[in-house]
Amino acid sequence: MARRQAGPPLLDGGRAGAEVSPAEIAELYRRLHDRTPSPETELDYVNNYTLLVAVVLSAQATDAGVNLATRALFETVDTPEAMVALGEEGLKRHIRTIGLFNTKAKNVIALSQALIERHGGRVPEDFEALQALPGVGRKTANVVMNCAFGAETFAVDTHVFRVSNRTGLAPGKDVLEVERKLDAATPPPYRREAHHLLILHGRYVCKARRPECWRCTIADICRYQPKTPPPGSEMGAGALKPPRRRT
What we know:
Helix content is about 50%, strand content about 0%. It has helices at about 20-35, 50-55, 65-75, 80-95, 100-120, 125-130, 140-150, 160-165, 175-185, 195-205. α8 (about 160-165) packs across α10 (about 195-205). The chain is elongated.
């Protein structure tokens, strides 16, 4: 069963220096935007309903793993009615490679039934209504509001939490604190795409175990210390020190 490997604590320290200024924050986002001008979720979906299902399935799983599991599923099941007709056991057969698939299958069937009963089979454009659905938490509701409806929300996953703390952009001890600080600090031009920019930066550059500071476009703004040197350098992470010669 493919599951995301547990990494180090989210709040992993290493942050030093003065508070990041509004001008630096604007420059940080500008550089991330220049590198990825049209950031979007890496989850595959065909409509708002399949987006909601994909995000629910992505908890404690990789986007790539979810995409593999849902590729065939979404070809024929793209409405709450079709999902309920498939049933919990039928859904499990599609998603059994995803972590916690038993619980997720139960939640997806339950939220599909709730959509039919409460919202006429449509995904509501309302944060509180989304959170009231089975298996839908704050992060999932934020993702759906942003990706489906263009809302300026800040979904905080492990990548966003890590980047926000390491850089000093929005340091916080929990996801809600980070979300609120991102909301307060992020300037208008980047509010809709901010969480995508931060997720992609955390996934591919500011990695959990070894941030790739040597190729980071915001390294001079980031407060993380010490910076990770390029692979193969004398001080590179994992480099062995020469044995001390006995006299």
